Every structure is written in C-alpha cells, then in structure tokens.
Hints:
- By secondary structure, this protein is α/β, with parallel strands linked by helices.
- The chain folds into three domains: 14-124, no CATH class; 147-249, Rossmann fold (3-Layer(aba) Sandwich), CATH 3.40.50.2300; 260-335, Alpha-Beta Plaits (2-Layer Sandwich), CATH 3.30.70.
- It has helices at 40-55, 107-118, 121-124, 155-168, 186-196, 212-220, 233-244, 281-291, 316-326, and strands at 14-23, 27-29, 34-38, 87-95, 98-106, 147-151, 171-172, 181-185, 203-207, 225-228, 252-253, 258-259, 270-273, 297-301, 304-308, 332-335.
- Strands 1, 2, 3, 4 and 5 form a five-stranded antiparallel sheet that branches.
Amino acid sequence: MERCACCEERPAGWAIAAQPLRRYRGWRPVGPGERTGVCGWCARWLAQLAADARSGEGRLFGQPGANGRHLVFDDQCAVCCESPAERAERTAWLRGGQAAGELFLCVPCARWLLGLAGSGRTLQGSRERHLDGGYGAWPHPRLRGMRTWSSVRDRGAAEVIGAAAAAMGLVEAGSAEEADAVLIEAGAAADLCRELGPGAGRVIVLAGPGAQVETARALEAGAFGWVTAPSTPQQLTAMLARLARGERRGGWDPATCLPLLEPGRGGRPWLWVEVPGPGEAWATAWLVRRFSRGYDAIGAVDGGIGVVPLVPPGAVGRVAARLRQAAAGARVEVRGAEDPPRRRFEAAG
C-alpha cells in the first residue's frame, strides 16, 4: 500500500488534491491537477496548519497569514484572505476518492501547503532536515554588530526578521539613515529610497505576491534587492550577507524584478525555469524565490528564470523536482555551465 508522503510512516488512506484554476467569467479548472497521498493523521495536521496560519496562531517560520484580513467572500484565499487576480487553486482533502473538505487558495498558499504535504517530517519533529546533500545545512552568517532598521507590518516577516537578528547578533538602528541594512515592505520602499538618496543601496524590499509594481519602483529608486513576504530566515540572512560583503547590484529585468544572471560563470550545473505565458513572469519569479534556498543565485536569463543551486552536482535533479512543484508545474530544465543564454533580456537599472 502507498505510504504517506508527508510522514513516510503510515499508510496513505487520504490524498491532498490540487486543481489549478484560472479566472475567466468565474473560476474555471485548467490543466491536470496533482495528488499527494497522505495518512489520516497528516491530513488533519495539514488542515490545522491552514486554519492556524489564517488565524495567526501558527508557529512556522515563513508561513503565510491573514495579517488582520477577514475571510468574507468565496474567492478569497482561505489562508491569507487575499483575492487572487487570475490564478488560484482548489485544494481538496480526499478519503477513498471522495472529497471530505476543500479550500480555495491563492497559488503561493497552495504551493506552501502542498509542499508540506510532500515532506512534513522535519516540521513534525520526526526527522532532521538533510535535503539534497548540503542544500539545507547552511549556517547563519555571523554579522554581529550589523545595524538594521525595519518597517514591517506582516507578522510572519517580522518574526523572521526577529529570528535572524537573534541568530546573527544584529543591532537595531535608531533610524533608516543610521542603519547598515534597511528592511521595508514594498509599498513604502520607493519613497524611502528616494529619501535616502545614495543610501538606497542599503534597502532590502519585502515583496508580497501582488507587489510587482511597488518592487520595480523601489529597484528603480536604487534598492539593493528584494525577498518575498512571507520570507524565510535563510532567504533573509543570505540577502544581508550579500549586502555586508559589499556586492553591487547590477542590471535587472523589469518583468521579473530579478537581477540579470550569468549562470555558467561558476562552472556549476544550473536550472532554467520557464515562464509559462504572457504576464506570468513576476508570479513565477516570486514562487521560485519564495521556495528556493536563500543562498542559491537566482536571476533572469534566456527568457526565463535561472537558479544556480549550491549543491553537489548529483543533487541538482532533486532540486529541480522540488522547484517544479513549487513553481506550480512550470517546466524546469537542468543545464550545464557550458550552455549559453539563447535570448537577451531587456535590462533596467
């Protein structure tokens, strides 16, 4: 009998089924869905995680949340309570092939929940994470004394910033002008960058799934870069480490808000993620950055998104499989360092 993908211990008598939806005169199914077999205990655990995330009672770093929003309409995400614009997913709990319950979710929240359904042992405390060789074993950089200033309302993002500060010995600055690193949500980032002038190169933008325009404006005003909101400790600490090393921001791609990438320089195999269609570049870039490790190089290349995972070459295929699910089924290719980009991006910045 199939074993539970989440805990890898009990028989999978249930399944979590995700059906992609697209808005066209209502929400309509598009393309094939996917199923992940789970046991009854994990099915209930996943349902409780979704409920806790919406209420703000969850304790998982990087989890989404409603942040004071309320679930009022049927086409709001049942976890973050945002209203998806064009794409969403219907996530169902199946027992014996029959639906025992379902949630309407935005794509980021659906991918978060489905990722936990496929591998939940670490969060359940039954296994240490040793994913893809050294892929999950990076230590926090020691940046003790680095002065940071933040203006963040998102509860999950604020908790990640607090954890990163404690792990690395960061010091809270009295103002953005005094800080070595400035962390601010996308909506207010461009104005602050203009106020800081040359100091805008210290600004790290926290961008939600719908913040493409605000993120692009902040980059145009000189911001150093962006991480997703919700974020993860590793994503945030890696960005701080790059800033502390004095890395300079080069050109960036307006469609994805990602830096231009030259993946063959380090001699590593890398991943190319296809942008599924017109208008999907930012959404795909956001998912790739959200569910990749912070230390991996991510950027725009060859009409899509490049990821250079810091893993042994033999583990790149496993990283590709994980990203394929995280990016909602986008095509992911493993390429060698010798493969040249086939199409140039229009660069900004």
